[in-house]
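Example record

One chain of 195 residues, shown exactly as stored in the release files.
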Amino acid sequence: AGLPAAWAVARNDFRGRALVRALVMVPFVMPTVVIGAALRTTFSRLGLDGGRVNLDQSIWAILIAHVIFNVAVVVRVVGGYWAVLDVRLEESARVLGATRRTVWRDVTFPHLKPALWSAATIVFLFCFTSFGVILVVGGPRQATLETEIWRYATQRTDFATAAVLACVQLALVVTLVVASSRAERTAVQRFGLRQ
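Predicted structure tokens for this chain:
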């Protein structure tokens, strides 16, 4: 969802570009409760909270909230990287007869892989460790590892289980960061890019 916005701010020079970049960042810096309340109010006003379509406290509500929050990450990470890629590579491919799709697949996308790995890792970690979004938007029926740690520690006072879940979460996060770093480093070395 963030790639079109990343492309727009990276490769297009238009009036208000800085404003668009700032507006994309607003949900990311707002408290989770505010965004969650705004999303639930929007569902209510649009009739999406109980009629034929019920998004309130659903997995779709959580997904929409995470998209709203994390588009900013993709725009900042991928857009920033995309802005400094050498445009001449794409132009050369176009001059040699490559279609837009071929240029994207064979030139642009491979060079964006390090930024895409970074953004994907950050977004996944934000979603995986999401706490406020799950409680505010998802409600008590939806649970993640993060909310279960909180429930075991505060509501069930089962600190041993909460500690085990916290260790599992820590191990998963560290594994993901290490794997992402290796994949990013491999992509950078493959194309001779500088980090």
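Notes: The mean pLDDT is 85.
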